[in-house]
Amino acid sequence: MIYRTLGSTGEKVSAIGVGGWHLGLSQVDEQMAIRIVRSAIDRGINFLDNCWDYNEGASEERMGKALRDGYRSKAFVMTKIDGRSKKEATKQLDESLERLQVDCIDLVQHHEILRFEDPHRIFHEDGANAALVEARQAGKLRYIGFTGHKDPRAHLYMLEVADQQGFKFDTVQMPLNLMDAHYRSFSREVVPELVKRNIGILGMKSMANGIILKSKTVTPVECLHYALNLPTSVVITGIDSMEILEQAFEAVRTFHPLSKEELDALLAKTSAAALTGRFEPFKTTSIFDGTATNPEWLGEEPAEFQELMQV
């Protein structure tokens, strides 16, 4: 396993991380999910991804069971919350702690920063970041980050609003794949800014749940090699079987820093297919936007704005 430093935290994390969403899918039974997590940890993967809303909590519950019997001490556990209000964020975090069966989560991230109002809600005095900062002071979490998959400009704006509040994120998570390089690109617009700030870079959607593979332009291992070649701390990949776990280990085993010629050849394979965003529907549709179909997850808008709307 390759280990990398997680931004300015100093934490050493595996270059590949286990995605939590797949662990709670109906076609993955609980025992298989536990086996995937424990086998990954036994072979050197220490970064575990999850989210409060994945599969109505089943993903966190299964991961919590996998972390028993001494596995918790070997893992760097991350989860995400959708709440934008302090009240909703606190509620979701406490539920995650209970499901994961841990006293402290290593990294908690604000999930789905898709809208330009999200940063303002999160950094309001009664917003979600106040809840996470309090939880960090109370020892319920160690580091704070944010995620999103829609538009690199939303990520940059989140960093801008955080700057205005004097707050520095520990991590940022985003799609990093061979299609992204050509279209509304996080790798070109956001990654350099994070490198400059020494913020941990978490790559996701290297294959976009298999959608990128349907372009018939690149292989799974090529997708992982590209993401590993970026200045990522961790490339999070969905794993729903032992065969897919083996694929992830094979990608690490065969990885080497790509030469300019090798990188150019990989990018050339996807350049035509990537131009319209067809194979990145998380950018071009709302299909991947859980908070769009479940706005109640976000919590109420600040009272002062509700009052402004009253006639």
Number of strands: 10
Radius of gyration: 19 Å
Q: What structural category arises from helix and sheet content? A: alpha/beta
Helix content: 40-55%
Biggest sheet: strand arrangement: 3-4-5-6-7-8-9-10
Question: Count of DSSP helices?
Answer: 14
Largest beta-sheet characterization: 8 strands, parallel, barrel
End-to-end C-alpha gap: 61 Å
Instruction: Write the element-wise H/E pattern from the N-terminal end onward.
Output: EEEHEHEHEHHEHEHHEHEHHHHH
Sheet-strand content, in percent, reads 5-15%
Mean pLDDT: 96
Q: Which word captures the global form? A: globular
Low-pLDDT runs? none
Walk me through what this model shows.
- This protein is an alpha/beta fold and 311 residues long.
- The chain is 41% helix and 15% strand.
- It has helices at 30-42, 58-66, 86-100, 118-122, 128-137, 152-164, 186-189, 191-197, 220-229, 242-254, 260-274, 281-284, 290-293, 303-309; strands at 3-5, 12-14, 16-19, 47-48, 76-81, 105-110, 141-147, 171-175, 200-204, 234-238.
- Strand 3, helix 1 (30-42) and strand 4 (47-48) form a beta-alpha-beta unit.
- Helix 1 crosses helix 2 (58-66) and helix 9 (220-229) crosses helix 10 (242-254).
- The longest helix has 15 residues, at 86-100.
- The model has no long low-confidence stretch (mean pLDDT 96).
Features:
311 residues; eight-stranded parallel β-barrel; single chain; 10 strands; alpha/beta
Short description:
The protein is of the alpha/beta class and 311 residues long.
